[in-house]
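Continuing from the previous page of notes. For each protein in this section, the sequence appears first, followed by its structure tokens. Read the first protein now.
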Amino acid sequence: MGKSSFSKLIQSEKPLLIDFYADWCGPCKALAPVIQELKEEMGDRARIIKINVDKNQALSQKLSIAGIPALMIYQNGELKWQANGMQSLHKMKTELEKLL
């Protein structure tokens, strides 16, 4: 993903949660079903995507992602929330709902 497509992606008025992960990352795999459940619960009120850090190294460096899973919520081009490591469904949902 290039910088310009990422910039367009985060301009959304709808809250956007990005899960930065890697295929070899155990905690990332453990978080995957939680992210899927979050997608189902939020429906079209928020956008939730996954970005593979190994395939998007330049972007990962630009965003200073040191550990994964790394979660970021953007809205209107602004970083609204970020966290590293496992997060609960409740915590992520609460952070997204603050922006609705």
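Done with the first. The second protein uses the same format. Note its length before scrolling.
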Amino acid sequence: MQFRILYTYILLLLMAGIMISACQNTETDHRESPGKKAVLYLGRIDALPVTYKSPADNPSSPEKIELGRLLFYDPILSGGKDVACASCHHPEFGYAESLDLSIGVNGTGLGEKRKFNSNNDIPFTKRNAQSLLNTAFNGINEDGDYSPEHAPMFWDLRASSLEEQAFMPVKTMEEMRGHGFTEENIDGEIVRRINQIPKYRDLFKHVFENEDSAVTDKNISKALAAFERSLLANNSSFDKFMRGDESAYSSSEKDGMQLFISTGCARCHNGPMLSDFKTHVLGVADNEKRPQSDSGYHGTYAFRTPSLRNLRFTRPFMHDGKLQTLEDVLSFYEDLHGKDIPNHHVKREQVDSLALMMTVDFKNINAIVEFLNTLNDGDYDKKIPASVPSGLPVGGKIK
């Protein structure tokens, strides 16, 4: 931990008293017993590593990354050949999405201009598209330790690595599969299609040179994961300051960082990714675009703590994209103290006590937002291939 955050943290310890408990997941009861005042550990934040690790069975290489890039932009991976990974995770939006809920299959356009085609019977995607930037570090803890083989993915933690995550959108009906294939046979169809394209066969043979049959669903996932893992945005002004560049921060940004910690935000938004990667119940309102209530992690209405990095590019916020601005997000936490829980499926006693213990005050919101904006790094890989081996439109039907 850099000496500046250590200094800030010591001051906060003196202000807050003895800190005794770390942020826990929803499998542990956070609610304090009546009459018992709990004082909780405030959390630590730090710079991201300069380089990333890859799984032992999927080492990175420039050739594998470039193969993954082609697959990422190629709609050949979707059932109807009309949507690519990049349709909802485009570099223009920080490899996230500017819509609250994405439009996958049977859609046209990019970002806020994207809409369903006529005679549509496809629903919106279930949740807000999270950024792929820095997912190489998913699961990193306050000490900087992480395992790429066991990296928590998705809002409900249903995948535990980029390799496991990569093919799931392909199998999901509203995201990329569509009605033409079942979840069980879409992967075989994608492998068959790619095997029919000579350039892909050559690329897979070159990248996975020791394998007799290089084009497999497993190797498609590995190539996609290698590309996604390479998408770094780890040199923000926050990172520079935490690595020792005093000039990277203004006095007001330092004040905002201290308020971020002292109000309790860093209890869950901690570590280099500003996330504990655990699930918490907040009671955010359901998005009316979805016909059913989203009950999240194992039906508990808990969702994984998102990273706070590059929020400038990844609005709107929360798992269902219901909050449009950072000010809205901070006001949501302030309102938890006195107003009704926005989601009527969630009772107050279900809401995570760490959220209820936050002390965000309206007068401090602007300062905290100023700090959050220091977590943005716009200097990331935005390279889009001029064409893809299938000959289909790059990125799917986004124009």
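What the second structure shows: The chain has 14 helices and four strands. The two ends are 46 Å apart (CA to CA). We return to this in next week's lecture.
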